[in-house]
Design goal:
It is built from two helices and 21 strands. With 288 residues, the chain is mainly β.
């Protein structure tokens, strides 16, 4: 009888460390081909013509570089492991079950975000672009398993999280999202099957937004931006139920870029605020 591979039988490793809190994983690659037609013949070795010229090789060729992708969704039950991997340092990862694994090497994070709302545990979402190989056993390069210790698991609750931002004093914050977008530029040359160099296109953009229930909040004005853009620091602090730090996200010199107001019958008046911050290799996002 055939058996399925269940969640508790799977493990995710990144650079030799088993990752905890993972909720879902998606790893994939797709090969794109382009057929080459010959005048008076058509696509060689295809369909009707294959019977006429069985010894003629197929003239389909690659139509794009060989690249793959991974996406990982997790609950934040320890320090944000993937945060330190954003930037221009490649890494490897693999999913394991029994003696089988599906993995990659030379992966780069293109987006990493953390979000939370009332009644939920913070979650992270990570998108990875693969410029090396991706696939399964037995290639040892695709095996990222190891024995590096993972940080102690700690679970936050509603009373152990806070968002600090000037302008929101007694206004109750009901949700937040912090996202880091990393533009990646691979370089290919003739004669190489993979990218010979992968560069981050600086600056990296960090987008932070949060929703609050209006109490003392003072609205901004659109055209004030032309005179004096609003720039301020934002701190998102996530602790466990004993007050011990799990992860702090500090955004320095965040630029206010928009607000939206929402109201419905029987509901509370809410405002959603959005900020952008830009930084180079030594930038203004200080995460602890």
């Amino acid at each position: 009888m055939n058996q399925a591979v269940l969640g508790y039988e799977q493990k995710l490793f990144v650079n030799g460390t088993q990752i905890s809190g993972v909720q879902s994983i998606n790893g994939s690659y797709a090969i794109q081909e382009k057929s080459i037609n010959i005048l008076g013949w058509g696509h060689v070795n295809s369909g009707f013509y294959e019977a006429e010229a069985p010894s003629t090789p197929c003239l389909s060729v690659l139509n794009s570089p060989l690249e793959g992708a991974f996406s990982i969704n997790s609950t934040l039950v320890s320090e944000d492991f993937f945060l330190s991997l954003t930037g221009d340092n490649p890494f490897s990862g693999s999913i394991h079950h029994d003696s089988q694994y599906f993995g990659f090497y030379s992966g780069y994070i293109t987006n990493h975000s953390v979000s939370c709302s009332v009644g939920q545990i913070p979650t992270t979402s990570t998108t990875i672009k693969i410029f090396g190989d991706i696939g399964g056993a037995p290639d040892p390069q695709l095996n990222a398993s190891g024995t590096n210790p993972f940080p102690t698991i700690s679970v936050p609750n509603q009373g152990s999280m806070s968002v600090e931002c000037s302008g929101a004093t007694t206004d109750r914050i009901t949700s937040f999202n912090h996202s880091i977008n990393v533009p990646i530029s691979p370089i290919y040359i003739v004669g190489s099957a993979s990218a010979v160099q992968v560069d981050v296109v600086w600056p990296i953009t960090a987008t932070t937004s949060f929703t609050l229930e209006v109490d003392e909040y003072k609205y901004n004005r659109l055209r004030k931006y032309l005179i004096s853009p609003t720039v301020q620091d934002i701190a998102i602090k996530i602790n466990d139920c004993f007050g011990n730090k799990i992860q702090n996200y500090k955004v320095k010199d965040a630029r206010f870029l928009g607000e939206s107001v929402a109201q419905s019958v029987g509901g509370r008046l809410t405002v959603n605020l959005r900020y952008n911050s830009y930084y180079n290799k030594r930038g203004n996002v200080d995460n602890e």
